[in-house]
Design goal:
- Its main location: membrane.
- This is MFS transporter.
- It comes from Bifidobacterium margollesii.
- It is found in: Cell membrane.
- The protein is mainly α.
- It has two domains: 380 residues, Growth Hormone, Chain: A (Up-down Bundle), CATH 1.20.1250; 31 residues, no CATH class.
- 72% of the residues lie in helices and 1% in strands.
- It contains 17 helices and two strands.
- Strand 1 and strand 2 form a beta hairpin.
C-alpha cells in the first residue's frame, strides 16, 4: 500500500503534526509503540526501588539495574538487524513473547526474594529480551514519509516521537514510585510487563505501515532474472540489476551500520549524554529518601521530562538554520551548563524542579537530532540498526551511570552524585564539536 505523504502533493496544514496523522495507520502504530515503550521509563527505577527495599544497599540496587540495562544494550543491534532482514512483524512476535515471559519471571523472583545471584541472572535474561521500540517506530515514520523533498516532515515525526518518549518518562517514574511505595515494592515491575504485552501486540498487528523487507540474493538464484530487486550502494532498491553485481551489493547490505562515518561518534556521544540521566535519577532518589520524601521521587524526576516534552513539540514545529551536527553541539553545551545549577540547587527540590524543566527543553531535541543524523548517514536498508545503535549507546550510558552513581553515593554521600550529570555531559560536548568539524570539512571538499 502506498501513502500519499509527498509534501508537494499533500494539502498544507497549520501544524506539521496534523499532516503527519492524516497518513493512514500512523495514529495506530505511534500510540501502540508509546504504550510498549513505557517499560523503558519504569524498569530501571523500578529495579533500584525494589532492590534497595529488599537489600537496603544502593550499590546492589544500582548494579542490578545496570545488569539489566547493559544486557539490553548488548543485544539491541542484533535485534535491529533481524528486524531489517526479516521484517518487524515476523521477528517481533517471537521476541515480544520471550520478553514478556522474562519480565514476569524477574518480577516473581524479586517478589519471592530468591537468592541474589539468581535474581541477577533473571535481570540479565530480562535485559537480553528487550528491543528498541523507538527505533522500530522511527523506521516506520521514515517508511511512510519516503519521497519527501526535505526532512521537514520527518523532523516533525522524530520530534513527536521524542515528545512521546518524554511523556513516557513523565508518567513512568511517577507510576513506578507510586506503585513501589503505595501498592507493593515489586508491583512496579509487573505493570511494565503488561504494557509490553498490550502495546507490543497492537504494534505488530499494524501490517499496512510495516516497512518492506529489502533482500539481496546470491548469484544463481531467481534474482538473476532481469526483473530482480537488489539494493544499491546507498541502500535503495534497484529493479532489473544484473546478477554479476549482486555479490558486491550483498557486502554493502551486510555492512554494520556502526561502520558508516559518524555513527560510532554518535554512539559515544549518546553513551556520555545518557549517563547523565542515570546519574541524576539515582542521585535524586537518594536525596529524596534522605529527606524522608521518597514518595515524591517520581514527580521530581518527571519534571525533567515535562521540559523535554515541550522542547520536543517546539523543535518539531520550527526550521533551524545550520547542520544537524551544529544543532547537536549547541544543545549539548547548553545542557551541560544547566547541570551546574542542579548541583547548586540539590538541597532545594522546588528550585531543582524549575531547573529540571528549563534544562529539559534541550533534551528531546538532542535525541531527535541524533536520529536525524543517523537517517542522513546510513542507507534505508539498515535504518533500524542505525537507530538502534543510539538506543544501545543510551542503554550503555544508563548502565554505566547507575553503576558509577551507586558507588559514589555509598562512598561519598548523597550529594556527591549530583556532580556526575555535569561531568558526563561535558565529555560529550567535544565529541559533538569534532563531528561538526569533520562534517564541515567534508562539505568543503565536496564543493
Amino acid at each position: 500500500m502506498k501513502f500519499k505523504a509527498n509534501g508537494g502533493k499533500a494539502r498544507h496544514h497549520a501544524s506539521p503534526y496534523a499532516a503527519l496523522f492524516r497518513i493512514p495507520g500512523t495514529k495506530a502504530f505511534s500510540a501502540s509503540a508509546a504504550l510498549a515503550r513505557l517499560p523503558i521509563s519504569m524498569m530501571g527505577l523500578g529495579i533500584v526501588l525494589a532492590l534497595n527495599h529488599i537489600y537496603d544497599n544502593w550499590t546492589t540496587a544500582g548494579a542490578m539495574s545496570a545488569a539489566y540495562v547493559l544486557s539490553a544494550a548488548v543485544v539491541t543491534p542484533v535485534y535491529a538487524r533481524l528486524f531489517d532482514r526479516f521484517g518487524q512483524r515476523k521477528v517481533g512476535r517471537v521476541a515480544l513473547a520471550l520478553q514478556v515471559v522474562c519480565m514476569f519471571s524477574f518480577a516473581l523472583g524479586a517478589y519471592l526474594r530468591i537468592a541474589l545471584p539468581a535474581l541477577f541472572v533473571l535481570a540479565m535474561l530480562t535485559g537480553v529480551t528487550q528491543f528498541a521500540f523507538g527505533a522500530l517506530v522511527r523506521t516506520r515514520w521514515a517508511w511512510v514519509l519516503r519521497g519527501q523533498k526535505d526532512d521537514a516532515m520527518l523532523n516533525a515525526a522524530y520530534a513527536f516521537e521524542s515528545a512521546i518518549d518524554e511523556t513516557v518518562f513523565v508518567i513512568g517514574p511517577i507510576l513506578a514510585a507510586f506503585l513501589a511505595t503505595s501498592v507493593h515494592p515489586v508491583s512496579q515491575l509487573v505493570f511494565p510487563a503488561f504494557c509490553s504485552l498490550i502495546g507490543g501486540t497492537a504494534f505488530f498487528m499494524q501490517k499496512q505501515t510495516q516497512p518492506s523487507v529489502i533482500t539481496v540474493e546470491s548469484p544463481g538464484s531467481r534474482s538473476d532474472r532481469s526483473s530482480s530487486s537488489v539494493v544499491d550502494a546507498v541502500g535503495n532498491v534497484r529493479e532489473g540489476a544484473s546478477s554479476r553485481r549482486i555479490n558486491a551489493l550483498f557486502r554493502v547490505r551486510t555492512r554494520s551500520a556502526l561502520a558508516y562515518r559518524g555513527v560510532a561518534l554518535l554512539f559515544l556521544i549518546f553513551i556520555a549524554f545518557n549517563m547523565s540521566f542515570a546519574c541524576f535519577d539515582v542521585s535524586v532518589t537518594a536525596i529524596t529518601k534522605s529527606m524522608g520524601l521518597e514518595k515524591i521521587v517520581g514527580v521530581q524526576l518527571a519534571l525533567f521530562a515535562v521540559g523535554s516534552l515541550f522542547g520536543a513539540l517546539i523543535f518539531g514545529s520550527v526550521r533551524l538554520r545550520g547542520s544537524h551536527w551544529s544543532h547537536l553541539s549547541v544543545l549539548l553545551s547548553v545542557l551541560t551548563m544547566w547541570y551546574v545549577g542542579f548541583r547548586l540547587a540539590a538541597d532545594n527540590l522546588v528550585v531543582l524542579g524549575v531547573l529540571e524543566v528549563c534544562a529539559g527543553f534541550v533534551v528531546a531535541p538532542i535525541f531527535a537530532t541524533g536520529n536525524l543524523l543517523v537517517k542522513d548517514i546510513v542507507p534505508e536498508s539498515s535504518l533500524t540498526e542505525g537507530l538502534s545503535w543510539l538506543n544501545t549507546g543510551s542503554s550503555l550510558g544508563v548502565s554505566l551511570g547507575s553503576t558509577v552513581t551507586g558507588v559514589v553515593l555509598d562512598a561519598f554521600g548523597t550529594h556527591a552524585g549530583m556532580l556526575l550529570p555535569f561531568l558526563t555531559t561535558a565529555c560529550a560536548v567535544p565529541l559533538a564539536f569534532a563531528g561538526w568539524t569533520s562534517a564541515r570539512r567534508r562539505a568543503r571538499r565536496s564543493r
